[in-house]
Amino acid sequence: MITRNFPKTRARRLRKNSVIRDLISETSLNHKKLIQPLFVSDTVKGVEEISSMPNQFRFDQNSVLKEIEELKGLGINTIALFPHLKSIKKDNEGSEALNPENFLCDTLKKIKQHFPDLVVIVDVALDPYTTSGHDGILKDGKVDNELTLDALSKMSITLTHSGADILAPSDMMDGRIGYIRDELEKNDFKDTVILSYAVKYASSYYGPFRDAVGSKQKEGISKKTYQMDFRNSKEARKEVELDIQEGADILMVKPALPNLDVIKVVSEEYDLPVFAYQVSGEYSMLMNGIDKNLFDSNVIPETLVSIFRAGSSSVLTYFAKWIAENNG
To answer: 30-326 — its CATH code?
Structure first.
């Protein structure tokens, strides 16, 4: 170990101006590594702001195409798509998720028709489709793992047929990556990427998202019965290793900021790319702080850099467009 002493070593020499700081920075923001989540809705005409997420919107099919065109103009070439649906389309089984003509599939086809080179990540979970707001099918007072696996594997084929480039199972059912991978192979979708929400903690940070997709829980069953306990970090290794064995291509850690330690461990110990999701609660927390002048907007790149510094290859963030406009 080299011993450094003052005054021969002065750390401030390399901090004296912005050009030098940029030259030696270990981590920098690249908007091409940011993924913009978008909400599409069959209940709105045009655009509707999400009350719990300032400057985030639900789009109808026409307006989402305009938004994507703007994003592509800014250099953002990957989106994550989430549906918000009429209540009449929901049931206990989330059966609308398997309908090849459903709103999300129709929207996906239109998006790929207009933007064939856009990479579209699609969520694989039943919560936007179930009356319970759960990610799976309820049976005998609990979320039934095997029934849900069958539905998710069928849903994955439906979404891939419609043009999904990357499937992102976010449900946290045991064995779902293997079920989905096997179904993709059977249907000759050998090149479909699976982005596994391998480490998804049961978190209070998801509140605004559930508002955005209309999936607030109506049953007393807790999502803690299938999502990870935020008090555990060693458990993340088990979840990651299972998903790798079952055929995941990319791993996700969610939420991002409270779990930088986990992002670091997963990125250093496993050879798959690691993505992080700066979730709705993280976004709204920062936006409300900026709005109340508790801090300025520089907190946005600061938090994103910390996620990349921890080891994330890419970040899903509602700030993607903002970064492209302001820090691109």
So the answer is: 3.20.20.70
